[in-house]
Amino acid sequence: MVKVLAILYKGGKAAEEEQKLLGTVENSLGIADWLKQNGHEFVVTDSKEGPDSDFQKHIVDAEILITTPFHPGYLTEEVMNKAKNLKLCVTAGVGSDHIDLNAANKRNITVAEVSGSNVVSVAEHVVMSILVLVRNFVPAHEQIVADDWNVAEIARNAYDLEDKVVGTVGCGRIGYRVLERLQGFNCKELLWFDYTDLPEDKKKPEFKRVDKLEDMLARCDVVTINCPLHEKTKGLFNKEILSKMKPGSWLVNTARGAICVRADVKDALASGHLRGYAGDVWDVQPAPKDHSWRHAFNPLGGGNGMVPHYSGTTLDAQIRYANGTKDIIDRYFSGKDQDPANLIVINGDYASKAYGEREKKASGQKPAGP
Ligand code: NAD
């Protein structure tokens, strides 16, 4: 008998009415019966903060932990110290930065995520967010629900995406798909910056690699961030890096909130240096009511395309990451090898190159890439 602990978000009425909301406490990734029929204990909760949370209570003897980036159970080294039985952490989705990966390595805990499960969902959201900002959609829509009509006030800050330069920071599964989807918009240039090269069969003459981040930022009208959060990307978009962006450019971040410095983004927007900032990821989730990004605007009162963290949790994505989570756990129970694409850390080392450039230790690292 194995104890499995899942930290998911509460879906309430929505989850009762829509059972395809699999990532919720109520629908428990659709694996509750399967686990129980096989004699395992399954604890599912949304209570994740502080020493009295269910998370901290049950992590003490759980062998498998399931978390999701949408309602992250932060598995810090301190919490890990209490987790004497923990062997496997499964991220139901993509992005395992809420787990201290270096601490997991020290303790030989395997971390796996359902790679690729929601990359199309996020790439579509990025393209939508770019359009929402560039075309000044949100203030236009707000006029309508406020029974107002003032074309000039909207049009004074609305542009076409055609002929603009767009660049992605990180050109893995999501970044690459964003560029692919932008091909139909006749952008002036589609650029990418990543320390990992694209595989030969994915290279396209219209996707241009830029070797230095600052050089790419200086050329871009729109920047989209699509790299994981790790030691080298935490706070990467600070005042200094933001100042390298073109004045009046737009920034979309669906990767992780903490890649951008909260106050610096707000200031860049308020000064007009950034014309807009959009995304669904926050440096703390759920975002507190007074989070400054909720009310960060450009000097014309627009440029805010923020939403709760949901780009990667469409109903289509939820089926994929729920099935993927079950597969990872099934393989663990039956002693089968995991799909290498899903492994982040295993046997005390990084199995993925996506979480920062680092010296390879024992295990072979799978190259990152689309
Ligand atoms: P991926 O592993 O396929 O690609 C990540 C790429 O980022 C890799 O090519 C890696 O080399 C590159 N990278 C890492 N550090 C970099 C740096 N400092 N500068 C430039 N490039 C760097 O991952 P993916 O599937 O494309 O997902 C990327 C990230 O998007 C995830 O780690 C997660 O944080 C985020 N994500 C968000 C959602 C959401 O719902 N908002 C959903 C899925 C993933």
UniProtKB/TrEMBL annotation:
Per the record's keyword annotation, is Cytoplasm included, yes or no? Answer: yes
Q: Enumerate the spans annotated as D-isomer specific 2-hydroxyacid dehydrogenase catalytic domain.
A: 34-337
Q: What is its EC number?
A: 1.17.1.9
- Xref: CDD domains: FDH
Q: Provide GO CC annotations from the record.
A: cytosol
- Which EC class is the enzyme in? oxidoreductase
Keywords of the record, alphabetical order, are: Cytoplasm, NAD, Oxidoreductase
Q: Please tell me where substrate binds in this chain.
A: 94, 118
Residues of the D-isomer specific 2-hydroxyacid dehydrogenase NAD-binding domain: 128-296
Q: Check the record and name the SUPFAM superfamilies matching this protein.
A: Formate/glycerate dehydrogenase catalytic domain-like (SSF52283), NAD(P)-binding Rossmann-fold domains (SSF51735)
**Residues flagged as site, Important for catalytic activity:** 256, 309
Where is it located?
Cytoplasm
List the GO molecular function terms: formate dehydrogenase (NAD+) activity; NAD binding; oxidoreductase activity, acting on the CH-OH group of donors, NAD or NADP as acceptor
Q: Which residues bind NAD(+)?
A: 173-174, 194, 228-232, 254, 280, 309-312
**Example GO biological process term?**
formate catabolic process
What is this enzyme's catalytic activity, as reactions?
Answer: formate + NAD(+) = CO2 + NADH
Q: How does it assemble?
A: Homodimer.
NCBIfam families assigned: PRK07574.1
PANTHER family, per database record: FORMATE DEHYDROGENASE 1
What is its biological role?
Catalyzes the NAD(+)-dependent oxidation of formate to carbon dioxide. Formate oxidation is the final step in the methanol oxidation pathway in methylotrophic microorganisms. Has a role in the detoxification of exogenous formate in non-methylotrophic organisms.
In which family does this protein belong, per the annotation?
A: Belongs to the D-isomer specific 2-hydroxyacid dehydrogenase family. FDH subfamily.
The protein's name is Formate dehydrogenase
